[in-house]
Design a protein that fits this description.
- The structure holds 2 protein chains of 2 kinds.
- By secondary structure, chain A is an alpha/beta fold.
- Chain A contains 4 helices and 5 strands.
- By secondary structure, chain B is α+β, with helices and mostly antiparallel strands.
- Classes of the chains: A alpha/beta, B alpha+beta.
- Chains A and B meet through helix 2 and helix 3 of A and helix 1 and helix 2 of B.
């Protein structure tokens, strides 16, 4: 099976950026995920939702890139929400102790609702 | 599956990632960046650096780094690192200079008796401390990085030597053609009857060689236009 070339799409929903990584997050092409989040952070966005519906697998390189996003957000007292995670992704984050540093929702709409409620 | 087993599998997978990145055909900087991500992703380090030792300037250069400032890294003296145990992780509690720059662990990188550089890591993002298993894994990873850096250094040396050999060869070729020309000119000057004979011989030899399909590189002396009387500079050995 040919691996899916990693790519990133995004959109702004209210004051939150929703990021859609697509493919296996396992090499330097994953830097585009950090760059995409960086664009929103530089624009003053402090809430980021990463929808993992099209990313089933991640390796140590992907974890490192995710840590970078988490730290960038931590530096501006921002929030990162992760949604639509596969069991593998969820178990990996749990095993590494990363779940305490992010807010996890089953689906994207739940994360958006949560972030909207937080701004009221 | 227990957390310990999952962690062990993750560590194994990180070693596999490292094994995939180090021999890759990526440019050296990209390779080291990928290796650096593998390390920070494996140990969840908030800071880190891969430092390379330049034997001529006796200084450490950051090949890739995150979270440290150049001023932090200036505090790391190569002599100080060379005094530490080879390829053995050293924790900040055992080396105060690490605490000064905000590093948690350092591994001096060696290949046999050659100091290659150092691997530096900060605290874990998850605020946990480095376990004995982490340090064991770090030692394995550090050894691999040391070998990769050493290979790169050997490759650069070899490239430099190849360039130098090529330069010497071209110089020797130039001297050889100069000598031939000098001989030919001297012989032509001595005997008016054979004047320009060598020039004509070279010209005809080159024309024949070209007609036979030889390219200019195989026909030495074509640009010089001279050869010794009764000889041809056309290279027989290349055929």
């Amino acid at each position: 099976m040919k691996p899916v070339q990693f790519s990133v799409a995004s959109k702004l929903v209210g004051d939150a950026a929703v990021i859609y990584p697509k493919g296996y997050l396992n090499n330097l092409s994953g830097e585009s995920l950090v760059n995409e989040c960086g664009i929103y952070i530089r624009r003053g966005i402090t809430k980021i939702v990463v929808n993992f519906s099209e990313t089933d697998l991640i390796n140590s390189i992907g974890i490192s890139l995710l840590l970078q996003i988490m730290e960038d957000l931590r530096n501006i007292r921002g929030t990162i929400c992760c949604t639509n995670m596969s069991k593998f992704l969820h178990d990996t984050f749990e095993m590494l102790g990363l779940l305490q540093h992010m807010i996890v929702f089953p689906v994207e709409s739940d994360a958006i609702k949560y972030l909207k409620a937080g701004t009221r | 599956m227990s957390t310990e087993l999952k962690r062990a599998l993750y560590n194994l997978s990180a070693l596999a990632d490292l094994g995939q990145e180090t021999p890759s055909e990526n440019a050296f900087h990209e390779k080291m960046q990928a290796v650096f991500y593998v390390i920070t992703g494996t140990f969840l380090a908030n800071k880190g650096a891969i430092l390379s030792y330049d034997g001529s300037s006796k200084k450490l250069d950051a090949l890739t780094q995150k979270g440290f400032t150049p001023a932090d890294l200036v505090h790391l003296g190569a002599e100080e690192l060379m005094a530490l145990e080879k390829n053995e992780p050293c924790l900040a509690k055992d080396a105060l200079f690490l605490a000064v720059i905000g590093a948690e662990v350092l591994v001096p990188l060696w290949v046999r008796d050659q100091f290659i550089g150092a691997l530096l890591l900060g605290d874990k993002v998850t605020a946990g401390s480095y376990t004995a298993e982490d340090l064991e894994l770090l030692k394995i990873i550090a050894t691999q990085i040391a070998i990769t850096l050493n290979h790169h250094s050997l490759f650069i040396d070899l490239s430099d030597k190849l360039g130098e050999n090529h330069r010497l060869y071209e110089e020797m070729r130039r001297i050889y053609h100069g000598t031939i020309q000098a001989f030919a000119a001297a012989i032509d000057a001595k005997d008016a009857y054979t004047q320009n004979h060598s020039h004509r011989v070279a010209k005809y030899s080159s024309a024949i060689a070209r007609e036979l399909g030889w390219n200019d590189n195989d026909i030495p002396g074509t640009s010089k236009g001279y050869t010794l009387p009764g000889t041809s500079t056309t290279s027989e050995s290349s055929r």
